[in-house]
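User: What would this chain look like folded?
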Amino acid sequence: MARDHHRESGSSPSQRALRAGEVIRHAIAEILSRGDVHDPVLEGHMITVPEVHMTADLRLATIYVMPLGGRDEKPVLEALERNKRYLRGEIARRVNLKFAPDIRFRLDERFGEADRIEQLLRSPQVKRDLGSAGDDE
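Assistant: Here's the prediction, encoded as structure tokens.
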């Protein structure tokens, strides 16, 4: 019991959880790209699924999504939540797991974070600091 608690508290996920997450990521990406979900919001957007995190017991899948171009994030998440039951059923049908995991959707904020870092690196203060650091050597 203590080992499971330690695993969830910050250590890296098991190979089994990583493998299951990747299989679920492929299944969700295929479902969304084929247009199998008949929702006007989802039909009007290309949605990328860069990552799926699984809990150690494989009962919960956190699916990170990003609409192409980063537009209409809130309506897309709401549409995915509305169709969660259908998507979970499709995952259960396509992925061979003992239990169909509960699913939740989150925005993948790595793209926004990368833009923020890019802007910081291009700022005059950082350029000035980098220029003076090169003079010391």
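Helices lie at 2-8, 15-34, 40-43, 73-82, 84-94, 110-122, 124-136. If you want, I can go into more detail on any region.
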